[in-house]
Design brief:
alpha/beta, tRNA processing, nuclease, seven-stranded mixed beta sheet, RibonucZ/Hydroxyglut_hydro, endonuclease, metal-binding, 36 strands
């Protein structure tokens, strides 16, 4: 067994000054009013939540105008220079110690519980929670585990040990975020033991490339490696390996690898491999050897470390029988300390007789300790190996060894997919355990109609009822606002009642009690009740009786024949005014139930100030482009908002992902359904990552892995991933763990200068890529120096082959260009411009293509304004409300007003605000008077380019929907303090 510790240093905000550069100046005429507003002092709004507290003030507001202006009168924007340079760290380290517990094996409460991550989306392996009074264990940590535990108030801070049944994105995708969360708890943070087979080292190596502040990782590996270059087949030992053995539980592991054929079967495998090579034009993920005698080694080489699976056995100690004082006295013992020794299992000498008294002489029959097995058999190849494992013989009632005691198993949790667990061979293997309770927790066993994330599902259903055009029905529901009916859920693939043993499909929060012994068995009392769209709509009507009229009014925005003036005029004879103090506009409710209409005043001004329809939207098709906001929160996943990800749907021409935070795959499945998400993954043309912070890319490995699996049997090319160069180190390290089938391209190779260099050299050859420093704040250089180089100066530094391939992919997708540009947040942080190709209408008129800009995370900066000039859509982060400018500067984020100011300065047609702090759990604090062309993003919001003209009109109605939910609930308040610690770790 190997154990190692990785010490990683935390970084905290430190004192910094306002910093400016010519590259960050705003145009004085366009931005002066905006900047004057930004730097004006504003009292913090009174809100019924705990105020945000920071341990160090990074920036203070300038006291004099001279501090924020140049001699020529140009206004400047403040930002945290040290954070942008990545040099604001502290030398102080956190020594995260593991928890120590005083355990009581007699009176403890114990149960196993299904934490149903992935059950409604089938995107990850469910987690299993082993609970003791003083100790906690979790098996598997797939993406979404934190959101699920937050939803159901399961405190991950209490976890002592985490075990992985496989080392891959399916079982460990949520681990990086979880480690960051634990490291950010309290002043010193917390740590946890992580257990996995030998190849867990690849996962740890990959994580340390982008979690430089995760404090200390206590990782333990067991078993030998699968790589035949390091150890021969004879060195592979299945176990069991005892991992934990204390007073309350013994946890052991048995390794399970896919069956590898040899002998005559090798020739058949040779033929299969040769055919596969022919079909894929000689392309296989690993080198192969044609000789059949090397077939065994070749097949071993084809296996990835993530192919090794683990079976865990959790054995509780037996409960000693009841002590009989009468028997003790008959054997000559006096009452006293010797009674205690016998109850502890120790023999003692009789006080009155010359004999030894043994515990069995005075104790009643012992009660065997309960045993739980967790079985992860992911493929039929693993099944063949599992059937022959000798390590499990002690648990079989038909092991054939009459003299050998059998360990009676009480519960078996099956994590394998239904395609394996429902086979006849697997079912016969299950019968060998006798009569334990079997819990089927694998994919496809039951696609539950009860969403895992009930809070976000409830908001999604409310939004869908209000405005189905922007918030389509989630993929796991068939919500029909007209009658509130639901689609039928996917039923189980197996009729469990037909089996000869006790079977039950896993459900969220299903328990199996182990101690006390009297409660041994299943407990379904904690399973969430069914949640249907009709229930949510009923609640909505009780809360907002006029919601039906409001929904109908919103739908009027999508009627092309309706005149815009009709939407902003109230018919006084038929309306009743309903004013809410929390809204900046009144909403008119039609007493005749014919609809609702906006009041005059602010809304009328807003309508009148709208820009004319851009020429790119002339006769635009709904099949041209759609923006799906998969994650709209910052830092870490929360109950209501996932972390950053934007899906650009180009329909028949494919799709792109802009950022890919943890849970992106699950969000795709919630939006498009399980099958629809698979189609979306197959259709990806490119994934673009803005910067290396964990909330923007930790879902990437899972998406790449799933895409590789979906396309493994069809000819395809690796997916291009564009990102900062630190991301390549992570992907290179992770590719040793499982197939991710991607080609990396540095963001700096997709800047405007790089594209110009490609155009200049297209006919003259390709230059070899070289390493160089192009960070926005490169030492010894002015920030704008590299970005102003000519194409000739940049040409020899660009990865031309990958760039040329990306150009072709973009053209096939109907895009003219994808351009990255530097922004002010952290080293190598970028924004992106997507430009569609021009099109020709029916009368041969040339119509320019739309332009989309995504800011990533940033302070307002000139590079972003320049890139956004004349854009059709700007998706801009708005992490903080306007009253929190100081915090925004310290973290190099933007406030709502700053984001809108950037869009106004660039004359953008529509602005979508996203990346909201956790302090705004449901809807952020906004002021519609400054938002005539702006809308707030919500998870699963789908903005079709044809709907852009009506997009800002919906905002007042969204606020109406959340009028009773602007104040967070108690469970949300605790996340505010955690956000500060989490940010200091991922952004340090």
């Amino acid at each position: 067994m190997h154990v190692w510790k990785i010490m990683l240093l935390p970084r905290r905000p430190s004192t910094s000054w306002f910093f400016s550069s010519p590259s960050l100046q705003f145009p004085p005429k366009t931005l002066k009013p905006f900047l004057t507003t930004v730097f004006s002092s504003a009292a913090r709004r009174e809100r019924k939540i705990a105020p945000f507290r920071r341990s160090h003030s990074s920036v203070s507001e300038p006291k004099e105008k001279s501090n924020s202006s140049l001699m020529d009168g140009t206004e400047k924007v403040a930002f945290n220079k040290k954070r942008a340079q990545g040099s604001d760290g502290s030398s102080k380290t956190r020594n995260l110690q593991l928890k120590t517990r005083k355990l009581n094996p007699v009176n403890t409460i114990c149960y196993v519980q299904i934490l149903g991550t992935g059950m409604d989306t089938q995107d990850t392996s469910p987690s299993v929670f082993l609970f003791f009074d003083k100790q906690r264990f979790i098996f598997n940590a797939g993406e979404g585990l934190q959101r699920f535990c937050t939803e159901h108030k399961i405190k991950l801070s209490k976890i002592d040990h985490m075990f992985l049944t496989r080392v891959c994105s399916e079982t460990a995708g949520g681990l990086p975020g979880l480690l960051l969360t634990l490291a950010g708890i309290g002043e010193e943070g917390q740590s946890v033991n992580i257990w996995g087979p030998s190849d867990i080292k690849y996962l740890i190596d990959a994580m340390t490339t982008f979690i430089p502040n995760a404090a200390m990782v206590h990782a333990h590996r067991f078993g030998s490696t699968l790589n035949c270059g390091e150890t021969g087949d004879e060195d592979f030992k299945a176990g069991p390996f005892v991992l934990v053995d204390d007073e309350v539980v013994k946890v052991s592991a048995v390794l399970l690898r896919p069956e590898i054929f040899d002998g005559e079967q090798d020739k058949t495998e040779d033929s299969k491999i040769s055919n596969a090579i022919d079909e894929n034009s000689g392309s296989l993920p690993i080198p192969f050897v044609s000789s059949s005698q090397n077939s065994l080694k070749r097949m071993k080489a084809m296996l990835k470390p993530g192919d090794i699976s683990v079976i865990y056995a959790c054995e509780l100690p037996e409960i000693k029988g009841k002590f009989d004082p009468a028997k003790a006295q008959a054997l000559g013992l006096k009452a006293g300390p010797k009674y205690r020794e016998l109850q502890l299992g120790n023999s003692v000498k009789s006080d009155r007789q010359n004999i030894m008294v043994h515990p069995s002489d005075v104790l009643g029959p012992s009660v065997p300790g309960p045993i739980v097995l967790l079985v992860d058999c992911p493929t039929l190849a693993h099944l063949q190996e599992m059937l022959s494992l000798q390590s499990l013989n002690d648990y079989y009632v038909d092991n054939g060894n009459s003299g050998q005691s059998v360990k009676s198993v009480n519960c078996v949790i099956h994590l394998g997919p239904a395609s394996v667990t429902m086979t006849g061979e697997y079912q016969k293997w299950m019968e060998r355990f006798g009569g334990p309770q079997h819990i089927m927790a694998g994919h496809e066993v039951k696609n539950m109609e009860i969403p895992i994330l009930r809070s976000s599902a409830r908001i999604a259903a409310r939004l869908n009822y209000l405005c189905p055009q922007l918030f389509p029905s989630p993929g796991f529901w068939s919500i029909q606002p007209s009658n509130g009916t639901l689609g039928k859920p996917v039923e189980s693939n197996k009729d469990f009642s037909s089996t000869s043993f006790k079977n039950t499909p896993a459900e969220n929060l299903l328990k199996f009690h182990l101690r006390p012994f009297a409660q041994l068995g299943l407990d379904k009392s904690g399973i969430p009740s069914a949640l249907t769209s009709s229930d949510i709509v009923t609640e909505l009507y009780a809360e907002i009786p006029e919601i039906g009229n409001i929904s109908r009014q919103v739908s009027q925005f999508w009627k092309a024949s309706q005149n815009a003036d009709d939407m902003t005029t109230c018919k006084e004879e038929n309306v009743t005014m309903v004013e809410e103090p929390w809204m900046s506009e009144a909403i008119c409710i039609d007493s005749s139930n014919e609809g609702t209409f906006d009041a005059s005043g602010v809304q009328s001004e807003q309508s009148g100030s709208e820009s004319e329809l851009p020429s790119c939207l002339e006769n635009i098709s709904r099949e041209d482009m759609e923006i799906v906001l998969l994650g709209t929160g910052s830092s870490q996943p929360s109950k209501y908002r996932n972390v950053s990800s934007v899906y650009i749907n180009l329909f028949s021409k494919g799709s792109l992902l802009l950022d890919c935070g943890e849970g992106t795959l699950a969000q795709l499945k919630r939006r498009f359904g399980v099958g629809g998400a698979d189609d979306a993954i197959r259709g990806l043309r490119c994934i673009w990552i803005s910067h290396i912070h964990a909330d923007h890319h930790t879902g990437l490995a899972r998406v790449l892995s799933v895409r590789s699996q979906l396309l493994k049997d069809v000819p395809h090319e690796p997916l291009i991933v564009v990102g900062p160069r630190q991301l390549k180190r992570f992907l290179d390290a992770y590719s040793r763990l499982e197939d991710i089938d991607m080609q990396f391209l540095d963001c700096r190779d997709t800047t405007e200068a790089s594209w110009e260099a490609l155009a200049a050299r297209f006919e003259t050859g390709e230059a070899e890529k070289q390493e160089f420093d192009t960070t926005l704040f490169a030492r010894g250089n002015k920030m704008e120096k590299y970005w102003k180089r000519t194409p000739g100066q940049v040409g020899s530094l660009v990865d031309f082959p990958a760039l040329k391939r990306l150009k072709k992919i973009l053209l096939d997708a109907g895009l003219e260009g994808l351009t990255s540009f530097p922004v002010v947040h952290c080293p190598q942080a970028y924004g992106i411009v997507l430009k569609a190709k021009d099109r020709i209408n029916g009368v041969a008129k040339n119509i320019p293509g739309w332009k989309l800009v995504y800011s990533g995370d940033t302070r307002p900066c000139q590079a972003l304004i320049d890139a956004s000039l004349g854009a059709t859509i700007l998706i801009h982060e708005a992490t903080f409300e306007d009253a929190m400018l100081e915090e925004a500067v310290a973290k190099n984020h933007s406030t709502t007003k700053e984001a809108i100011g950037v869009g106004d300065a660039a004359n953008v047609y529509r602005i979508i605000l996203t990346h909201f702090s956790q302090r705004y759990p449901k809807i952020p604090v906004v002021d519609e008077t400054h938002m005539p062309k702006t809308c707030i993003a919500f998870d699963m919001m789908s903005v079709n380019i044809a709907d852009l003209p009506v997009l800002p009109k919906v905002l007042p109605y969204l606020k109406l929907l959340f009028k009773n939910e602007i104040i967070p609930d108690e469970s949300d308040e605790g996340s505010l303090a955690a956000e500060q610690q989490f940010n200091s770790l991922i952004e340090g």
